[in-house]
Amino acid sequence: MKTILIMEDDPYHARLMRRLLEREGYSIVHADCGERGLQLALEIEPDLILLDLGLPDLDGQTVAGLLKGSTLLAAIPLVAVTAWPQETASQMAAAYGCEGYISKPISARDFVAEVATYFKPDLAL
Amino acid sequence: MVRSYKSAQNARSVDESAVMPTPAPISLIPAIEFSIEELTHIYNQSRVDYIVPMPMNAARLSEYIHNYDVALEHSVAAFVDQKVLGLSMLGVRPGRTWITRLGVLPVRRRRGAGAAFMGHHIESSRALQAKRVNLEVIKNNVPAHKLFKRFGFDEVRELLILRRPPGPPKIDVEPYKAEFLDQDGALELLSQRESESSWLDDMPSLKKVGNLIGLRVSADCGGGWLVCQSTTFQLGRLVFQTESGDPACVARLLLHALHSQHGAQDTKTENLPLSDPHLPGLLDMGYIESFRRIEMSLDL
Questions:
Q1: With DSSP H G I counted as helix, E B as strand and the rest as coil, what are the percentages for chain B, rounded to 5?
Q2: Cis (ω within 30 of 0) for the bond into A77?
Q3: Residue of chain B minimizing CA distance to A95
Q4: Using CB atoms, which residue from B57, B166, B290 is nearest to A88?
Q5: Among B40, B41, B43, B48, which would you mutate to test the A interface (most chain A Cβ atoms within 10 Å of its Cβ)?
Q6: How far, in Å, CA of B209 to CA of B31, rounded?
Q7: Distance between CA atoms of B163 and B281, rounded to whole angstroms?
Q8: What is the pLDDT of residue B53?
């Protein structure tokens, strides 16, 4: 079972993302701030991280920089979640080493499929 | 002490009032009557639908209040029928005030809270004998911009918020000499500042935020200095000054030195004027535009 770490301070968005992803069989861990999210990332080494770029303690870009600067965590796919316009979101996500971004408000219909595209394929031996 | 303001929506025709009830009056309660946790909650709730929400936790809001001289006795939360509408804060410094973080909960907009906030802050500013009231509005926030224009605010300039991910410089520059300075040295540089500051990077703000470093460079293309805040994870609040030569080149040199020394830190700088001649140098050194603000002011 794949584990996704959601770093999102807005409880409504966090609940929605959790509900949609758990329904598809993902195990979800949630942090409502950057500091807790970094701790959890180190503890559980999730298969994917969804990172809200507007967090209340360390802002999202700083967290992204820390994740991608960590030898332990850099390889985990990191997806920014943001309400920024497309051009800004794309540029910012790329600059901070994110694999991509998902726009807010998330689409309940498309969200799970969007997330699935960011998982690295399992290598068959 | 609770003060009541009639909502502008109370001015209705007789026919309208026959079918619609008169809106309840808005009450403005001084922010000082709330805990920091309550203020944080109202603040965050008022911005959940913003493109750039900039949420804060209680610690960050406390720091914000301290660093920017926000007067909680002059800042207010708005209520109708005991339901919170939003929050707006007023920074106070000698001779001037600053309206900041005005926000109304999305489901409670268009009830006159914005106008109530503005009327209150202008009245307070007059009572405080301020000569000028400043504010910044996120560019393209049309309703807020219209509100501020309605109350007589004029646009002053456009300001950029820029980010740069961690990492050493990616471009080479000409040879230069660099000298890093501590907080005292940084404050000494700031005392010579010629550019117009915004409230966030004004001297009183920078003195309060602390952890300042200064940097001087000189090379064939020119010389100058920068001051910034350096914390564990982030560089911020960059202030540039060119003393000779080409500002864009001087900026490149300054940032080359800064990010060579502080390569592990993320960088965020707020309120760099769009017209700042150092801007091309920042863009060359990997700074990305995050969003823009419009600075506005009202002379009293």
A1: 35, 35, 30
A2: no
A3: B165
A4: B290
A5: B48
A6: 22
A7: 14
A8: 87
Compute the half-sphere exposure of residue B93: CA atoms within 13 Å on the CB side of its CA.
Answer: 18
User: In the beta sheet, which residues pair with residue B134?
Assistant: B98, B297
B2 pLDDT more than 50: no
* Closest by Cβ to B57, choosing from A57, A65, A95: A57
Alpha-carbon distance of B225 to B214, in angstroms, equals: 7
pLDDT along chain A (125 residues), means of 10: 96 95 97 97 97 93 95 96 94 96 94 92 54
For chains A and B, count residue pairs whose Cβ atoms are closer than 8 Å: 59
For the residues of B100-169, what is the DSSP string, one character each? Answer: EEEEE-GGG-SSSHHHHHHHHHHHHHHHTT-SEEEEEEETT-HHHHHHHHHTT-EEEEEEEEEEE-SS--
What is the pTM (predicted TM-score) of this model?
0.90
- Per-residue model confidence as pLDDT tens digits over B27-71: 999 999 999 999 999 999 999 888 888 999 999 999 999 999 999
Q: With beta carbons less than 8 A apart as the criterion, state whether A31 and A50 touch.
A: no
Looking up tokens 């339901």, which residue turns up?
Answer: B83
Report the percentage of chain B scoring pLDDT > 90. 89
At residue A102, what are phi and psi to the nearest 5 degrees? -125, 135
Closest approach of B57 to chain A, Cα-based (Å): 5
Q: How many angstroms separate the CA of residue A125 from the nearest CA in chain B?
A: 36
Tokens of B228: 């910034």
CA-CA distances (angstroms) from residue A109 to A18, A22, A112, A113, B188?
Answer: 14, 14, 8, 8, 57
